[in-house]
Design a protein that fits this description.
The chain has about 475 residues and is an alpha+beta fold. It has a domain of about 220 residues: ATPase, nucleotide binding domain (Nucleotidyltransferase, domain 5). The protein has 15 helices and 23 strands. It has a 7-stranded mixed β-sheet with strand order 17-18-16-15-21-22-23. The chain has a 6-stranded mixed β-sheet with strand order 3-2-1-5-14-13, sandwiched between helices. The chain has a two-stranded antiparallel sheet with strand order 4-7. The longest helix has 24 residues. The mean pLDDT is about 95.
């Protein structure tokens, strides 16, 4: 069996062809544009994303099955009759709805947590979908004519490519509109945000089958981080992974029981056919790869290879700290008004110190997620990581020390695609290849954690204080 596993991510669309003989190859990869029409706004062109999916699928050649993973919280509106888009894709990083959410009351926030497990944060799709209706006349017109469809990007892709208007449990659980207890859209949350429930897609099992593209069945569709969780072979309570892409996303399996964490988020890992839903805890850092890209763009470094060659004491140990809050702070802070902060520099500080501080800031924020999860459940002794930063041995060692967990890096780095193949029923265990393990050491100590916590405190709430 040959599977085309398509990962439609925040910066690019990639297709891996995974074969049951144990081989895999990247068939195609295409980057897409990001648009920032106003500060805090992030958009994609949905037609460009769709075109890129079709292009990388064509480059895969003859396959037996297709599987697709999506960005999660990114969403849009389109016409049910024509399929034409009525809005751009509002990307998960977008913060345009922060003020509208801030106007909701404490009881609304409590009910959101109780029903969906999620805070009232612009990260999630609910307020974005409501914004489209309130601010884009074509969307409001389509609603009045009974032709409006609203959804995350997967629902749009499946509708246009396969003629199926649906999403899966895991992606639905990231919207802020999904009732975790009942496994269905919440009428109460739809009314709170102003999202018409009849415009939302059907919710399906991850492996239910989603139609065909040119006669080839599209068997699996799921959010990218949950696909990666499956690709990391996380199956039992306490198994966890971190994916370092545009952001950094930590997920840990909790099993069949839904948890109610204080600072992290309960989410659906996946819901397979004829099986109970598998639950997980989730936490994210908005800016991981995005922070590094910013550092590269302003000239702190020029190539990723530079990030693996640091000698001497850490920047933190010398009092140089960076808080990577370019898009605010996600779990466990939930502070969209936080700002990025460099602190502790002097005349001797150079760009190598600063880029090192960026790496350390990403690791320290990520360690805070692991610590928050450990307050809720028993985690395993190791954490599996993937994504661009996982290729830096320095960063992996730093993360192991910050988390006080062994960090495992698989030689196969396209684990979202591998997870898609696994969800299609293929045995992909051997395809992960050999792994490297980084044991915790004394690279990061308690004083470093305290110093970083103080820097985060100073970065917090800055934008709100300026209003």
């Amino acid at each position: 069996m040959r599977i085309a596993a398509i990962d439609q991510g925040t910066t690019s669309t990639r297709c891996l062809v995974v074969d049951s003989d144990g081989s895999w190859s990247i068939a195609g990869s295409r980057r897409h544009a990001h648009f920032h029409p106003q500060p805090g706004w992030v958009e994609h062109d949905p037609e460009e994303l769709l075109h890129n999916i079709q292009a990388v699928l064509e480059s895969a050649g003859q396959v037996d099955t297709i599987a697709l993973c999506n960005q999660g919280e990114s969403c849009l509106a389109w016409d049910a009759d024509t399929g034409h888009t009525l809005s751009p894709v509002i990307v998960w990083q977008d913060a345009r709805t922060a003020d509208a959410l801030a106007r909701l009351g404490e009881e609304d926030a409590r009910r959101s947590r109780q029903i969906t497990g999620l805070p009232l944060d612009p990260y999630f799709s609910a307020s974005k979908l409501a914004w489209l209706i309130r601010h884009l006349p074509p969307v409001a017109t389509a609603l009045g004519q009974g032709r409006l469809r609203l959804g995350t990007t997967d629902a749009f892709f499946l509708d246009r490519l396969c003629g199926r208007f649906c999403t899966d449990w895991a992606t639905a659980s990231r919207t802020g509109l999904f009732d975790l207890e009942r496994g269905q859209w919440s009428q109460e949350m739809c009314e709170l945000h102003g999202v018409p429930i009849q415009c939302l897609p059907e919710i399906s099992d991850v492996d239910a089958g989603f139609g065909e593209i040119n006669g080839v069945p599209l068997k699996v569709s799921i959010v990218d981080q949950q696909a990666a969780l499956h690709g990391h072979q996380c199956r039992h309570s306490g198994d966890s992974k971190i994916t370092f892409g545009t952001g950094a996303f930590f997920l840990a399996i909790t099993g069949q029981e839904r948890t109610r964490p204080r600072d992290l988020l309960p989410t659906i890992a996946w819901k397979k056919h004829d099986e109970p839903a598998c639950h997980a805890l989730e936490g994210g850092v908005y800016d991981a790869g995005a922070a590094l890209e910013w550092a590269r763009r302003i000239g702190l470094f020029s190539a990723m290879e530079e990030l693996d060659h640091f000698d001497g004491p850490t920047a933190l140990s010398r009092g140089i700290v960076f808080v990577p809050a370019l898009s605010g702070l996600a779990a466990p802070y939930w502070d969209r008004d936080a700002v990025p902060l460099f602190i502790g520099m002097d005349h001797a500080t150079d760009r190598r110190d600063m880029v090192r501080a960026v790496l350390e800031g990403i690791a320290m924020l990520t360690a805070r997620l692991v610590d928050a999860a450990a307050q809720e459940m028993t985690l395993g002794s190791s954490i599996s990581i993937d994504g661009g930063l996982s290729q830096s041995g320095y960063f992996a060692r730093l993360l192991a020390s910050a988390c006080q967990k062994s960090i495992v890096v698989s030689s196969m780095y396209e684990l979202s695609a591998l997870g898609l193949a696994g969800l299609c029923g293929m045995d992909v265990t051997a395809m992960r290849g050999e792994s490297r393990t980084y044991r915790p050491d004394s690279m990061v100590n308690a004083d470093d954690h305290q110093l970083f916590a103080e820097a985060v405190r100073r970065a917090g709430g800055w934008r709100a204080a300026q209003r």
